Amino acid sequence: MKEEIELTPEDFEEEIKVEIDGSAFKSENLHCSNCNKKMSKVDLNIDIPNTSLKLSLIAFRCKECDKEYLNGNQAEKLDRALAIAKVIEGKGTVYERAGNFDGSNVFVRFPAQMIKGDNVKAEIIPLSPTEFFVHFKKKEKTISN
Predict the structure, then answer these.
(1) Which of 25, 89, 97, 108 is 20 to 30 Å from 69 by CA-CA measure?
(2) Candidate CATH numbers 3.10.20, 1.10.10, 3.30.460, 2.40.300; the one for domain 25-92
(3) How far, in Å, are 99, 105, 106, 107 from residue 102 at the CA level?
């Protein structure tokens, strides 16, 4: 029989610092949480709901119970595809902003709270003459001597 341990609030007062390696979410080997067996990589082709889009993902499948998992990178790819599908359906969040013209360029301002940072670079991908996909990413910092 297992001995029960009673915890008090004092047991949680100690500060613990944890460092997670950047590659932790890019796992190339997973073990099933049901069977604890090593899982094998499989290619998945997923139909994105309410669109004609298909998404190719690499998943991990348990040979014992057929449970499938995605690593962090693949899960992020699926999340992005589902967000794009919402936009295609017209159900995504829409922010309406004024377009401004400075004589040679049209520009749109994005609130800093939306972008979560001030050191960003915008990638603009044309979808049609009037539609664009905008992706903000952190600018690489350069060190000058």
Answers:
(1) 89
(2) 3.10.20
(3) 10, 6, 7, 8
